[in-house]
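Human:
Class, as today's exercise, you are to examine the entry below, and be ready to discuss the fold:
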Amino acid sequence: MKNFLILTFCLFTTFVQAQVNTVSTGAGSSKYWILFTDKDQSTAPAISPTTLERRRLQNLPVDESDQPVTGQYISQLQQAGIRPECRSRWLNGVSARLTPQQYAQVSALPFVWTIQPIDPNIIITSTASALKTFDQINPQMAPVMAQIQAPEFAQAGLTGRFVNIGVIDAGFFGADSVGALRHIFKREGVKQVRDYVNAKKTQNNLFRTLETMSDFHGTEVLAAIAGNDPAENVQYGLATDATFYLARTDQGNREFRGEEDNWVAAMEWMDSLGVRLINTSLGYAKGMSNPKENYEPKQMDGHTSLISRAAQIAADKKGILIIVSAGNEGDDRSWRIISTPADAKGVLAIGATNAKLWNRIGYSSIGPEELPYLKPNVSCFSLYGTSLSAPVITGFAACIMQANPKLTNKQVMDIIEKSSHLYPYGNNYVGYGVPLASRALALLKNQPLPETTRSVKATGKSITLPVSTSESVVSVFRKKNAMHVLSQDALHVADGKLVIRRANGEKQTTVDLKKEVIEVIWE
């Protein structure tokens, strides 16, 4: 991720030598999704008894998307000299490398519905490197734990116990050696690990072999979900007692390759094991080597990319809560908006806020105005990218799921949104704002939330609001409508009053006092 933190780098450089793994793709070949027309209806669902029971409890039917891809179709591809790399029962297809000649050959097969490209140079928007040590993350993690009211969950005994969490990322180097994660490995809390980049790599090699600097990324994400260091009396994440399933799906950062097919395969693997909560601090945007195949901002619509379609299937048909980093393109004037799969309606996309004002930090991607629903959904503080704000909220979700395991993914998502400090006055900069543990606990108990929001009508060019706050500077979101922000500003409070001068095109203004929200509606 742009400006992301490399976890405990200095602890490992003395005994690890970096290796770069170069994959030969074959002369003249490119990777594609080959999607099929139908399935063999006689095959049994490719999911575990645990998954079947979870679906039953959530009243989710087992359907065709749970059946494996038709073996006969794969055999015919292999007979034609094509080697499928990943299989997707959800999308009903396989990924494979095709030469132009093979592309034409496969297109003519009667069971092939369509072929879509997976480019080897696609940008992974949520990984990059900024070499820091764990000592440097300590003071930066503390503000977010206070911001989301972490002690409230601790006092309620909520630590993610009995919750299975999947983490899909670019690597987990050193995870079994980091002090903040030692408690997880000591109790054997990491149950299974899969490397979709190097299928033959063992679990230990995944933790101990460094191929690119992005191999630290998943380790850092895991620490933000469940990290705890009793020796230093520091808690880094909320889900300290959760159980984990880890998948490495991408090799490298911007300069290397992003593998959408690996991501889908990891999602389906976790679903087959009954995992209900998945963190993926990866996103995909632009970077196709063929400009005609580039994603464009207008295509971040929740259904153009196959990974967003897969994410929506996971949300609607599999009962999985997917928590995704919104992206770090907020300062990139050629892009600015969220990346896929954060654009999918059914996922919980997480932005990043500043520590003091709780408004959008500059790099955090904003939601496209074309979407009929709000993105990002919520936000929280992260100095080093949305790939660290997303795992914080993953831990938040795990505490909710521990408190009430019968909640569906959409009910958990609803609680997180309603627990956020701006709700119901969300916007496409920070969503509904920062989730607060005290509000989530009240919602879990069906208790009424305190009245912290109000709306006022204003006419003319300005309004003077009496406000009750100890802050000398507060954040305001100037909006062209109920959802979309024109700009965010910091205004001074003087003598208990806040003066707002209406900007051109400003129809509504959200005044964020943290403990209170005032929505100004201009007439």
Q: What stands out?
A: Residues 1-27, 127-140, 253-258 have pLDDT under 50 and may be disordered. The two ends are 42 Å apart (CA to CA). The longest strand covers residues 485-492. The first helix runs from residue 9 to 12.
